[in-house]
Structures are given as structure tokens and as C-alpha cells.
Amino acid sequence: MTERTDPSTMRQVLGHFPSGVTIVTGTTDEGPAGFTCQSFSSLSLDPPLVLVLPGRSSSSWPRIEATGRFCVNVLAEGQQQLSTRFAMSGGDKFAGVSWAPSGLGSPVLEGATAWIDCTLHDVHDGGDHLIVVGAVHDLGATGDIPPLLFHRGGYARTAVDE
């Protein structure tokens, strides 16, 4: 960053770019683990790869990383409470949450608009985040459920053209 670019300005300006909201999940020896992550993207179609960018301060990511597999759950509009729950540190985030195991054993959350089941392909340094590359093994979508969006510091909704 230059002398004129401070973190709060960067967050405010980049907040103008809307993103989807995901919950990255995995099954550890201690049970299911997960965290909210809005830093997610498709990387490659051939081979099929995705990017997830967990914060270095995440307590859930190291436990998921150790398993070598994870599932990205794309949240649906109306799942704000789930997003908030998984953004918190500690506690039993899965209490009362319905889910089914993916083919690789990671939690696929009920009501998610899409899910992407991955194995860990690579991890790179990304400043205060990690750049995680996932190799896609399976994926699916539930239909026409609009996604949960995050824009300028809050949740947003998609507009449907009539």
C-alpha cells in the first residue's frame, strides 16, 4: 500500500464490489467445522479449480485444511442468520443446522443455493489472508434460489427483471 492507502479506505472502496457469501465446511476428527467466507471465486474450468481466501486469524480453516478437503456452500437469499453464525469464532456453529455429507464427507448445508466439493490443491501466502486453491470433485445447485449478496458492508438482494 502507498502512504495514502490505509486499510479502512481500502475496505470502504472495495466494498463497492458486491460478492456472494459462502460457508466453507469440513469434517474434522472433532466433528464438523466451518466459517463464513465472501472471498471465493472460480479459478479454472480445465482443470476445475476454485479459490477460497480464509483470513489468517481463522480458527476453523487450520482444522479444515488438515483434512485436505472442504466444501464451499453458496448461501441463498434469506440465509443471513447462518452467515452471521458461521462468522463468529467459537461455539457449536452446527447446532440445529441441517446438513448432509458431500461425496468427500464435508457438510453440504441445507438450503444453500449451490455447493462445490473440493480437495486441497495448493495454499499460497496472501498477506493477512491465505490463497487456497481447491480441486473440484463434485458440485451442484438447487435451482432458481437467488444468492445471498454482500455489498458496502451489509447484505443485499438481487433485483429480478420482470
Average pLDDT, rounded to a whole number, is 89
The spatial strand order of the largest sheet comes to 3-2-6-9-10-5-4
What pattern of helices and strands is seen along the backbone?
HEEEEEHEHEEEEEE
Total DSSP helices:
3
Helix content: 10-25%
Rg calc: 16 Å
| Overall morphology | globular
Structural class: mainly beta
Low-confidence stretches: none
Largest sheet: 7 strands, antiparallel
Features:
162 residues, mainly beta, three-stranded antiparallel β-sheet, 3 helices, 12 strands, 14% helix, 44% strand
Give your account of this protein's structure:
The chain is mainly beta. The protein has helices at 7-14, 60-65, 80-87, and strands at 19-20, 22-28, 31-37, 40-45, 48-52, 69-74, 99-101, 107-109, 114-126, 129-141, 149-151, 154-156. The strands form 3 sheets. Strands 3-2-6-9-10-5-4 form a 7-stranded antiparallel sheet. It has a 3-stranded antiparallel sheet with strand order 1-11-12, with no helix packed on it. A two-stranded antiparallel ribbon has the order 7-8. The longest helix is centred in the N-terminal third of the chain and has 8 residues, at 7-14. The mean pLDDT is 89.
